[in-house]
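Translate structure to sequence.
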């Protein structure tokens, strides 16, 4: 293509359009970078606000958690104290039952000893009655009814 055949006005118009397009592109880039910086600044400030809120929330949550733990520990300590008191009472009652059981075992042993003595007396009584019966049989004219 021969540039000599292009009318000079068209060349000027095309050059002006290209220059205007370049200028517009530069303006758009500058505006875009400014808008980006403003958005970045705003987002950074919003981020810092969210981080501050998060820190506040975490501190409040930690405080509530500490209060809950303290109350739970207090309730747990009371429950443990009451349970230990009841457990010691049951242990005392259990030891009394053990003492009663030991006494009952002692009485059972005594009763077994008395039963043996009664059996011995019965055996002695049988032996004695058998001797008396033999003696009576040996005596003429004496009869026991």
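Result:
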């Amino acid at each position: 293509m021969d540039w000599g055949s292009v009318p000079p006005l068209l060349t000027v118009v095309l050059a002006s359009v290209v220059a205007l397009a370049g200028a517009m592109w530069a303006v758009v880039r500058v505006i875009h970078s400014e808008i980006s910086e403003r958005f970045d600044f705003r987002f950074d400030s919003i981020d810092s606000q969210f981080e501050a809120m998060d820190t506040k929330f975490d501190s409040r949550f930690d405080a509530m958690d500490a209060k809950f733990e303290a109350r739970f520990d207090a309730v747990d300590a009371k429950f443990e104290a009451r349970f230990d008191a009841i457990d010691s009472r049951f242990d005392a009652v259990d030891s009394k039952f053990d003492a009663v059981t030991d006494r009952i075992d002692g009485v059972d042993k005594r009763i077994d000893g008395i039963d043996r003595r009664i059996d011995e007396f019965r055996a002695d009584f049988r032996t004695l009655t058998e001797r008396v019966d033999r003696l009576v049989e040996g005596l003429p004219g004496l009869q026991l009814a």
